[in-house]
Amino acid sequence: MCTGGCARCLGGTLIPLVVFGLLANILLFFPGGKVIDNNDHLSDEIWYFGGILGSGVLMIFPALVFLGLKNNDCCGCCGNEGCGKRFAMFTSTIFAAIGFLGAGYSFVVSAVSINKGPKCLMANSTWGYPFHNGDYLSDKDLWSKCQEPADVVPWNLTLFSILLVIGGIQMILCAIQVINGLLGTICGDCQCCGCCGGDGPV
């Protein structure tokens, strides 16, 4: 299989993940599906924009670069044109590394937020973080510590879990493209070609 074709598949997979990551992060600004009257009452991790920046903006560029390799074919991959295609594959590894860092950022922010729990109105009528070291994850009765916004615990937990999974998948896909891109750089765009003196694909 052509390494360019593999990159195209990875890029096509990343696009919907980017969209889901953006949507998940945007929904976090509306805890319980409602508009909050004071932005200071939102969890700090929401303002880190893990899904918007990490799994979104920093991931859209690698995805487009991967999709841009779709025009690579076996024609000329063992001739002079191979230099340009090898350079394109090498460039894709750089963007894959950027995407990996972005996805890693989103993954870490999501993991920290899940462990920390959401910011909410507590029983003492102050806003803060009532949970400690993820204790609410194994004890649903603790969720009652959050009085407002309504359903903020399952809301944040669900959306940050989605971002956590998306970030993990994106990291894996970018790591695959790093390997794929290095193979394309060293061996040429297409593995279907014969030796460098061959006339074309075999």
TrEMBL record:
UniProt-listed InterPro entries: L6_membrane
Main location: membrane
GO cellular component, one term: membrane
Membrane topology, record value: Multi-pass membrane protein
Record keywords, A-Z: Membrane, Transmembrane, Transmembrane helix
Localization per Swiss-Prot or TrEMBL: Membrane
Segments passing through the bilayer: 12-31, 46-67, 87-108, 157-176
Similarity remark: Belongs to the L6 tetraspanin family.
Protein name per the record: Transmembrane 4 L six family member 4
Taxonomic source organism: Propithecus coquereli (Coquerel's sifaka)
